[in-house]
Amino acid sequence: MRRAVFAWVVALAALGCDRDGVQLRFVIQTPYERYRARLRELELDLTALGRDWIAAGKASLTAARSIELPYRETRYLDPRSAAAQAYRLKLERGQRLAVRLEMPDSSPLQVQIFLDLFWLADSASEPQLVASAEAGSWELEYVAMRPGTYLLRVQPELLRGGRVTVTLRAHASLAFPVHGRDIDAIRSVFGAPRDGGRRTHHGIDIFAPRGTPVIAAAEGRISRVTTNRLGGNVIWLREARYGRRLYYAHLDRHAVAPDTWVKPGDTIGFVGNTGNARTTPPHLHFGIYLRGEGPVDPFYHVFEPRQRPPEFAGDPSLIGSWARVSRRETSLRAFPAATGAPLERLQRSTAFQVLAGTGRWYLARLPDGREGYLPAADAEPLKPLGRVQIAQAAALRTVPGPMGEPIATLPRGQVVTILGRYGSFALVLNEDHTRGWVDHSNLAAVAALSEVD
Predict the structure, then answer these.
(1) Chain centroid offset of residue 425 CA
(2) Rounded CA gap, 313 and 104, in Å?
């Protein structure tokens, strides 16, 4: 037994090392795939725990929980099992997703947690990996150049885990192109009709006083500085990283020369109304063009949401443990909001497992495996409801119902402590501190010794 434990310790130590230890026969790009390669090299993928870890990573993408940004969740990733969690979210073209993980008692150097982002073309397609956090990092950023559904997977290495807070936010990927202004200054949007409907607007119009500085929205090269009939004084900026071509029009005057390398915030011109905008108040026409697609809506590229994810208002110590309903009745809902579709009415003392917490809600798993959200204010830790005697010999089970595996047999007259209920079963604590489920019919023949409902 000692040799087996020692082998596991040596193997896992090798897994956590990037430079030394096992030599790979091929190069893998992401930390997650590099870790899987080490599992194969050490033949840990042939063990039950190794197989479970690989399977959990795949299964989490299929069972990803839908969220809306911004989002913050505190969750317990059990180090004793192959824990993995995935989130399904929507991103608009041009949004910059920022993901951050926090653990109160650990650091990335102590616990390796893999962050992988996938794009889902449609429900029938395999998820396509688009970004991964660097090894030793709990942060990931990604600019979505394709709008649609994305999946974020969070998975710690084998035998690692704990209570982790995951924060996901969407940001602008470009600096706002007019100094001192934000989206409130936009008065005409992409696709608006022009010339009596004969054409559509290929940008956004940002209104500001004449002479307000116009700034570089990204790092890149000024490719053209010119004047034409429609746009008046115009500037084209080719972004260095993502290849977006940024178009600035109706400038009062230029402030930059062609082939100049600029950084976000550099002044390149000034707001005006030159070209075909002479009859309108001064404003900047700002457009974005992509190779092979032409003009695209700039809004989400420059939109910086003001909303912040709410802080968790529940009890962090309950995350990963069991709790029960404290009110006479509450609703289990599909989403963490009062408007979320109700899934089931839960009565007082109903026991459930707390999987995670977000805002004022707990994500609960009922004893039958169903999951949903309930208000954190409607829950409390497990504590004795009362002590009762077993009326007749009964099985103490892992879950309520005949499918529950028997843990022990409780003899007639045995005194147990009731902690919670679910359906026709009671969650009890035996004298030897074993916890399990007992059919109420085995308790109904005698009165509670000190039960409190």
Answers:
(1) 35
(2) 16
DSSP 180: T
**Sheet bearing 85-91, strands edge to edge:** 65-66, 85-91, 148-156, 113-120, 128-132
Q: Give the pair of three-digit tokens for residue 425.
A: 């079963």
Question: Residues in the chain, how many?
Answer: 453
CA-closest candidate to residue 44, choices 80, 84, 17, 14: 14
Among 13, 312, 325, which Cα is nearest to 164's?
312
Closest by CA position to 168, among listed 88, 240, 103: 88
- Lowest-confidence range among 26-40, 156-170, 364-378? 26-40
The first and second tokens of residue 199, run together, are 């054409």
Cα 406 from Cα 212, distance rounded (Å): 75
Q: How many other CB atoms sit within 10 Å of the CB of residue 291?
A: 8
Q: How much of the chain is helix, strand and coil, in % rounded to 5?
A: 15, 40, 45
Residue type, 56: A
Dig out the tokens for 1 from the structure: 């037994």
pLDDT in tens, 181-225: 999 999 989 877 776 656 778 899 999 999 999 999 999 999 999
Give Rg (Cα) of the chain. Answer: 29
| 177 preceded by a cis bond (ω within 30 of 0) | no
Residue whose entry in the numeric block shows the structure tokens 């950023």:
141
Amino acid (one-letter) located at 368: D
Query: 188-209 burial string, b = 16+ CB within 10 Å, else e?
Result: bebeeeeeeeeeebbbbbbbbe
Neighbours of 258 (CB within 10 A): 13
Residue 136 phi/psi, 5° resolution? Answer: 80, 15
For residue 235, how far is the Cα from the chain centroid? 38
Dihedral angle sign, alpha carbons of residues 174, 176, 182, 187: negative
Half-sphere exposure of 309 (CA within 13 A, CB side): 25
Six token digits for residue 453: 């409902």
Q: Which two tokens stand for residue 288?
A: 């974005």
Residues facing 289 on adjacent strands: 245, 295
Residue 74 near residue 99 (C-beta atoms within 8 A): no
